[in-house]
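Good morning C.,

I know you're traveling, so I'll keep this short. The sequence:
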Amino acid sequence: MEIYLVFVDAIQNSNKFWAAIVEDGNLTVQWGRVGYQAQTKVHTLGNHQRAVSKFNNLVAEKMMKGYRRSQSQIDSNCEVSKINRAIELLEIIRPCVEQRNFSVPYINALNQYLLIVPTPLGMQIEPYRVYRSVEDVDYQMGLLNSLLATPAPIAAAVAVVTTTEPTEESKVVSLKTISRNFWRHL
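The tokens, ready to paste straight into the viewer:
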């Protein structure tokens, strides 16, 4: 039993994750800012049932605070509907970036996009600087579209919280590695 939650509010400078996994009688919780080293706490609860109960209580608490289900990375195993929704949100974001109009529709689309695609944005989020140009948005769209065209298990991950070594069967490309220059301006 495991879960990955994110809380995003670009205006309030929030881009956090919270993850938990139950293994036997232990509940391991990790949390932190997306793209940064996670803090970890292991709750040793003695048996599986108590660990599951603690898990459910903590998840409910986080959901009440505004955290939403997500995933640590987007790859070809992700639901197609989520990838399509992320592309739709980028299509809303693109004209806003082109016109330099960072009003409520842009902020809402950005927050929703970051819920689907957790993205390391640094310690200080400046919503008008997340995408410097339409080319930046197009680049993200290209990555997402490549996932739709890539059969599983080969994937091009769009964003990750922690880096993992790709296996020989799967191709994982993370924003942490391919776009260091892309995020440098933040």
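Safe travels,
E.
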